[in-house]
## 1
Amino acid sequence: MSLTLATVTPGEPEIFASLQGEGASMGKPCTFIRLSRCNLACEWCDTAYTWHFEGDNRPHRSADTVSRAANQVKLSEEDAAQRIRDLGQDRLIITGGEPMLQAPALARMLALLPGMVVEVETNGSVAPHPALDPLIHQYNVSPKLAHSGNPASIALIPERLDQWAKEPRAWLKFVVASEADALEALALAETHAISRHKIMLMGEGVDSETLSQREAWLAPFCIQHKLTMSKRLHIDLFGDSRGT
């Protein structure tokens, strides 16, 4: 049994120690494991190497596709768990891609990591799996708004949003590039009764200059609407690079 992971370099799985760069746990030391494959295709995705493989015609702001062989690797659940243990952190961030597509394998891997605090970063379109769900301490849910380019019919599934609104372990983090995006997020919160204390707004961008420009209007917007603003700490610290 195995997991399908993204790579840092060809053949080397993307498992690394760093600081959590976004959301409610921003700044906490942790280990990341980045899985490959996604059911959505965001036009601005900063990890398109997890899904935008040669032959994939889904749109992305970069027209370039990548080699699946160089950017995807299989790893046994036991090997993945050992690599995570070897990094010595007590918090694990499972990211992607869309991790929930590999939920049964993740559940088997986490069974080998007792005592680990586990966060899952998900686009929110896939329901929690019964084998994995009891092992998760925090869901970092990032529903994809219209500017992502994904049809709402697959990205903003009403029953999923209703479920996340009621899930006490879930934070909902909306990526925004304009005030129109932020207003769309507020409208979704109203429709699905998402408490504002669970909502975070985060600027879209892969460089510090772009993020600063967007945070300049996003900060007063969050103050006005009593929302939490998330930075992208890892971009400021390490730039847009793998394994950070």
## 2
Amino acid sequence: MSILNSENHYFYKELSTESPSFLQLAFESLTNLQLHDTRTLLGRELPGLSIYNTEIAVAGKGTNITNLPIESGPPSEIYLKEREIADNLKQNDSPRKEKSLVTPKEKTVYIYHSHSWESYLPLIKGAKKADEAVSTDQRANVIAVGDKLEEELNNKGIGVEHSTEKIADYNTAYSLSREKVQEAMASNKDLKILIDIHRDSQPRRITTTTIKGTDYARLFFIVGKEHKNFEKNLEYAKEINKKIEEKYPGLSRGVFIKGKSEGNGIYNQDIADRALLIEFGGVENNLTELSNSVKAFSESFSDIYWKAEEVNG
């Protein structure tokens, strides 16, 4: 590119006119170390430093490399089997579908959970440590967040198909959820938007905010960059994030980009142009804070959704 640019500036006018150092290119190619980024050296030597390779596309309030998202590890079988849900959740056994005031016929949004076991400490009886925030009970894990989002979007006239499928294996989680997504889209051609709901492992001080006297579980977006739809998904996440910050300043922790070295790198987002991975709160957030965040997100999401529908139709 540099050689071509030296001969024809018109076609490569946005490329830097400075020729790269051959020695630097050779060194970086042979060692996979970037001279301008010490993380590429230290990340191999210091345990845990490699997580800082996550790119911050949009930084929310207070977001920096010291408080980046932390993905949960494989769920412990002992906690999955032995933990009971909180007593207040046991009283809420009403059927899911009866909660929605409206059920649109056309379902355009697909909600699912690649890490369905991810839960919250206040929703599990006796749970104290972060690695205990796992549950197969959908009243206590991220499926409950999906239930609430389904209800809120339905009531705004946006049809939702919500998969409550429990994913059993951590190592093949995204492959298993991918099969379900593809099956759903094959059987329903109206599905346009994919939302994979997770929760972060950071503590309450990072994952909670107060806006006008109301506590919220902060949310953020993860965008995988190892696929052809990366740019479209990134722009869509940025658009919704911007709307959220306009309505609820400080609610979002931002938009983050991950490659294969920081995670899955694709997250099934190659399947659609509008595929979102959203993390609602962290291990210490409670049901009220999560519910408040879902309501806030659904308001912003529906604004973007209906604006797009108006333009398209």
## 3
Amino acid sequence: MKTSARGAARMLSGVGCVAALLLPTAVTAQAAPLARVPAADGKKGQELPGMPSSLDSDAPCTPASREKAKKQDWSRQRLDLDRLHGYSSGTGVTVALIDTGVDTGAEGLDGRVTAQGTAADDCVGHGTFLAGLIAGAGGGGAQLTGVAPGAKILALRGTDQRGQASSALVVAAVRAATEADADVIAVSVALPRRDAELTRAVADARRAGAVVVAAATPDPPRGAAASDEIPPRSYWPAAEPGVLSVADMLPAGVRPDNALATSGVDLVAPGAGVVSGGPRGDGHYLGAGASVAAAYAAGAAAAVRAARPDDSADDVARRLTATAYPADIPQLDAYAAVTTVLSDSAAAGGAERAADPVTVRDTASADRATDRATLFVVLGTGGVLAVLWGAFALPRARARGWRPAAASASARPVAAEADGD
């Protein structure tokens, strides 16, 4: 019996040790999908060339990328684009994109881009990259569609051929977009000084019924240290009344360390490690900055306008902010913007969810999942310790005849004396 008891004890001890080693791994494997925040593609090994927002005066045009993305990036998953397209793809909506131009024959944009003036010549490639985020058809195995793949793009130049923004060019582009009856006007450049003509052009565009979306800041200068030297300030036209000001965020929901500081931001959207195409070839690039985030917001506005054609521009802007993921700065949720049923108090942020569509995401569910995982760890660890204690203590208690340890210790000398007699 003693031998079998020791064998059982050893077996239980071994099982307990194995369980103690494997339990944290098992808990992590089950809890991680609920709590894990996806990282930018650059951190996950999807190495692609970067898409610049401007070029040096003597630099050649951005060359065609020889690399292709092998998977859908985190930004499209974050915006629930796969499910969004079951409700709206932006069909019938025109988005005027004011940037470096858009190549009308770019991969995934064929037949849906018109360009005014020199905007069809995109030497930098940045405007074409953003157009893919707004309305790209994607293709291949990476599922790199834009937010509103059924929308049309009106390409307008807000920069020179090297990507240097100019107030005069932006004013002319906003007025051209208004004359073309664009439903959404996306201004991806950000100017450091207010311009009276630009103020009037934006006001006219809003009166004409366009949703005006603008990058809250310029894309960060080369070198993280340079952004620290620039004091917080407003940028234009993002700071104009009624314009939806959009800044960039990392997968964790925070702004990048090198982002330029500003105030009055209405939304943040993915703006790091974002994948799209360019004007030459069928390869892919990685892009970042508030301009990328503004393109995503403009695509979401197009999806809302297509799904709710009777809504005013102000209604669309309120919907984008009221259905955003709650945070210090609301985070764009394109799927919720289209599928959420807003109450009459939507202007104050109140929302009433429809039964069928998925509601606006809430961090409470992730917090509850984390709490359950923590409780599981505590209870599991307690169970393992109980098994180990039983494996150690039960054989010894049986050997003492189930007497308390103190009583057994005092009984041993008496027994020895009896044996000596």
## 4
Amino acid sequence: MQHFSSCILLLLLILTTHHFIPSLSEKCNPHDKKALLQIRKELGNPTKLSSWNPKTDCCNGKWLGVVCDTDTQTYRVTNLGLDELDLVKPLPIPPSIPNLSFLSFLTLTRTPNLVGPIPPSIANLTKLMYLYITQTGVSGEIPNILSQIKTLLTIDLTNNKLTGPLPASLSSLPKLIGISFDGNQLTGTIPESYSSFPKSFTVLTLSKNRLSGKIPASLTKLNLAFVDLEQNALEGDASVFFGSKKSTQKILLGKNSFAFDIGKVGLSKDLNALDLKNNKIYGTLPVGLTKLKFLRKFNVSNNNLCGEIPQGGKLQRFDESSYAHNKCLCGSPLEGCKA
């Protein structure tokens, strides 16, 4: 009888231990798991998130787009990538995303049916470093409240349906490296405050919007690696982005109404792309262009340039379409200058 009781006790012990194994071995923080499952529900349970199985550990590496912190072994969700979701109808950014309070990396991309504004509650993500919302139907203004997330390094909001002005407050972000707001319907001017971006700030891309007005002269303080303002309605002096002491690699200003003397600008030795087409830029091309060793993209067509194209370096590698339709530009690869 005692042997039978011992067997029953052993069996119960095995059963209860086995019953608790999943909960003991699960590393996913229950608060994060609850938030993730709520996010899936708010997105209409898309089939792409079928790997988010409530019976499994969200930190097992199999939950699509979910990465947990394994370095410090806190196993909080730090990365969330929601890309190319098959939403059955237009839905907003899930309101439960800000409940993932340890997020440092958030991407919402290539989902046209993701609509509505960027929620102000996103400011609750106080550890967020990288924010990517691209190729969606997200609309409304870029919220000023983003400037409260002091950890932000990169904000990429390209190819959405965002409207309104550029938030002036973004320059207060102490660690910001770059902003990319290309392909929206943003209006107004580039804020004067953008001259106060931190030294770490090197990327400013605002192409294919409806921005207008003049570039603040104070932006000359910036040392940008990459600036792209193409296809806006900007005007005036954009020479502020040039400078021989800067480490600029790309300057793309085409299809605006900029007007300044190109002959007076200093050139970064690192420059590999210079596109100034379809503006009102005047003067003669600087001889310094021939010394640019890395120049791979070059177009100054449809401006008011004059004088001889400097000979040498990589300038003659570009065909005549890169120089065409100027006031009186001449020399190879265009027709020779008249004596």
